[in-house]
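We store amino acids, C-alpha cells; thus:
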Amino acid sequence: STGTRTTNIEATEDTDPMAPTPPGAATPAPAASNFQPEPNCIRLTDFALDAENFGWFIVNDNVMGGQSRGGPVFENSAMLFEGEINTDGGGFSSVRAEIAPTTLAGFTHLIVRARTDERTYKVTLEDRLETRDRRVSQQQTLVFGDADDDGWQTARIDFDRLDPRIFGRAVASDPFRPDLATQLGIMISDGVDGPFRIEVDRIDACR
C-alpha cells in the first residue's frame, strides 16, 4: 500500500481551493517552508487548510482500463502525491482541483515548489473555451532548478508554452485561456513502470 487517500471529492465554485485570498482577509500563519509569494504573484495554495485540500481529487488511468494507482496525502503543509505507474493499459496518475473562473485571469505563469524522486511530472490545465474540444488537456513538464539544502526545487509553467493533448496525443488547439481556466492538476505519465513520489509545497500564480 502507498498510503494514499482515494477519496474523490470535487470542489464547487463556492469552495474553490484555488481562489486567491482577498486582501486583508485573515490567513493562517504559513509553515516554515512556505515563504510569502514573490512580487506580482499570489499564493494559489500552500496546502495548509483542510478546506483547500479536500478540493483535490484523483484521476488515474483506471478511467480507460489501466492499473496505475496513486493519490494525495496532505501533511506538514504539503501535498504528497505518490503511487505506482503501470504502463499496461494506460500509464498515468494525476491529482486535480477545480478552480473558479477568472482565478488565473491576468496571470502569465505558475511557480511550483516541490521535492521529487527525479521522475518526470507535468502540470495540467483546462479551460472552458467554447470552441475547444472538452477532452483537451493543456500540459507542460515541470523542469526544476537547483535544490536547496532541504531538497526543495522550483519550476515555472508558462501559459503560452502549454502543450494541448487528448489522451496523451498532441493535437492542434487554440491557446490556453487563463481567464477561462477551470482546472489545475499534477500528473505523471513518463512511460516508466514503478513507484513515484512528488511532494508539492506550494503553487503560485504570477504575472
